[in-house]
Amino acid sequence: MAEEHGKRERHLRWLRDELPELVEREVLDGAAAQRIRAHYALGTLREPRNVALLIFGALGALLVGAGLILIIAHNWDQLGRPVRAAISIGLLVAAQGLAGFALWRHPRSAAWTESSALFLTLCTGASVALISQTYNIQGELGDFMLTWTALVVPAVYLLRARVSALVCLVLALFLPETRQRESDFGFSYLLVIGALAPYLALVVRRQAGQARTLLLSWGAALTIPIGLSMLLLSGPAGDAEDLALPFFSALFAASYLFGQRLAESGATRVPGFTTPFTSVGLLGALGFALVMTFDDPWPWRTTFSMARDLRELEVQVALGCSVLLAAQPLRAALAHLRARRFDQALLLGLPLLALVGAPLLALTGAELLVMLLGNAYALALGVALMLAGLSARSLRQTNIGLATLSVLFIARFLDAELSMIARGVAMVAVGIAFVGVNVWLVRRTRREEVHP
Amino acid sequence: MSPRISLGLFGLLCAVQLFVAGSSIARHELALRRGTPYRFETAPVDPLDLFRGRYVQLRFEAEVVPLPLPDALRGEHVYAVLSEDARGFARITKLQAEPPTRGDYLHVRAVPSFRGPGEPATLLTLPFDRFYMEESLAPDAERLYRERARGAAPAYAIVRVHEGLPVLEDLHVDGKPIADFVRAAR
Fold it and tell me: I need a labelling partner for A6 at 20 to 30 A (CA). Which of A178, A240, A263, B22 fits?
């Protein structure tokens, strides 16, 4: 009986992993794939035993590798140069041997390939660190990280190692700042991300449901915005910081759109734990929509300050990247507008507000006008998200819209010159509205389930 | 990708990793064995690198060269020609765009500077500013150096230079290797 159940689960997992490819090759459409997922309850499948093995294997490799790096960082004075050189090469060869064995004997075992690749990744770092230390090789942390990641990225492809890819994404975060004064101005970060991007795109399309893909996707969705902002906004002159509003609104809209495009190949569309790009994009975009309702974050008050900043190369680069990132979301926003999906159109249209609002304030100097524009946009976005959630009978989507409206109202009530009583009453009213809409929606959904 | 191709490419990756590690060891080992030793006067301090451990951060007298930086070399890496002063410490005597045909040199980043009013100089970033030490020794090394520095205990780095590659071999305080100096003072 148990064996029968295990076999069924194996088949269902196979079906779950096949679906994205079937949709991509147009054997099934996205809606049919979604129905199959719901019918077989593929979203609630338990992970097989080898996932536990994978987790413990990867954790073991991480602890051993990180421990070796720390032991090496002690800098053993008693060991001579030849011994240290032998240890650095020996470590590397041992890790290569283990990874080679995994590739030769267990190429289909995620536990073997992931753990051995992670061990190789960390031992490569330990080996480079030991050589640097022994010969007092110069260079900042960024130089060391660049050598390390460059030597490890190919192993990600060969061993199909998603945890190692995540480690590379995290290590690459050291590059924008520490290599800013080097010949690449920190842009080697883009090289590392670019080298990992095809692998990331491949796994999120083909194996989106797997836990390790989800881990990598969350890593990418969170680290890439951080890395890009460090690279583009924290230049030596510091003037590009003024472009935070257009840059982040474009970046988060692009992340949301990327998540939605992935959904078209069969993955889920609703923001949540299984949709990192959509979730990070949505939360970031909503956050920046609310930030734009204040007057302080807007960059320029005069045409003089705008023109002065726009003469700086780093500002031009950040602006160019913002426009490039905004292009696809704005195109998609237009398509959603034509299809009367106002929530999506408004969300993806966020970069337009930032790109128009900044020069508008510089040209007119009218802070109130830009603030009104920001508030009108946030209000429209909150309402549109709430209505879309209500019409889809989705508690989660409705609450996202409600939360946006609540934060907006609370921010305005706190801003306004009102008495404590008025502010308190307003907050209570927002809270009651929040609970009321949820109760109403739950009751209505239940009623529809009983009398469809 | 077939298993044979995967294994072949993995073998190639292993070879590249070993080449990078091995050639780095070989080049630095060669410089240490065959390079000319130079003594650079220095002042150590003690920060921490998360991955490579504690090191002594070095600043050198020779970083400020009493020579104006030619306009053609501004914003560039330059070749700094090495020699020794009367006390036996390393000094940079010339800055040029090409490596010299004879003698030792360093490839360094250079920016224009001043030693005083009307005294143009060039500030160099010497490519050996970290001396890695055992974690228990580095803090004491810095403290002892600071205490002795008031009494003018000279500190200098021994750097071997071979075909333009400098390798920091040791750091001496009061005529002793810094590790021995710290142990003797404990």
Answer: A263
- For residue A198, pLDDT over 90 is answered with yes
- Which amino acid belongs to residue A357? G
Measured between CA atoms, the residue of chain A closest to residue B56 is A136
Q: pLDDT tens digits, residue range A154-183? A: 999 999 999 999 999 999 998 888 877 777
**Which residues in chain A are contacts of B24 at CB distance < 8 A?**
131, 135, 137
Q: Where are the domains of chain A?
A: 1-46, 241-394
Residue holding tokens 């990756």?
A: B13
Residues in A 65-124 with any Cβ partner in B closer than 8 A: 69, 72-77, 81, 85, 88-89, 92-93, 96, 99-100, 103-104, 107, 124
Min Cα–Cα distance to chain A from B76, Å: 10
More confident call, A97 vs A367: A97
* Residue A202, CA distances (Å) to A103, A157, A172, A206 in order: 20, 11, 20, 6
> Which CATH number is correct for B35-60+126-186, 2.40.10, 1.10.1130, 2.60.40, 2.40.50?
2.40.50
Report the gap between the CA of B81 and the closest CA in chain A (Å). 20
Closest CA to A65 of A36, A94, A40: A94
The position carrying tokens 């390390």 is: A148
Q: How far is CA B90 from CA A214, B93, B137, in A?
A: 56, 10, 27
What element of type H or E holds A40? none
Using an 8 Å CB-CB cutoff, list chain A residues near B52: 72-73, 129, 132-133, 144
- Give burial (CB, 10 Å; 0-12/13-18/19+) of B161: buried
User: Which positions ≥6 away from A338 have C-beta within 8 Å?
Assistant: none
End-to-end CA distance of chain A: 37
Contacts of B133 in chain A (CB under 8 A): 75, 77
More confident residue, A61 or A199: A199
Q: Which helix (H) or strand (E) holds B81?
A: strand B77-84
Residue of A100, A127, A136 lying closest to B21 (CB–CB): A127
Low pLDDT (below 70) residues in chain B: 43-53, 75, 145-154
For residue B77, give the chain A residue with the closest CA: A183
Residues of chain B within CATH 2.40.50 domain(s) are 35-60+126-186
B98 min Cα distance to partner chain A (Å): 19
Q: Which of A107, A141, A151 sits opposite B20 (nearest CB)?
A: A151
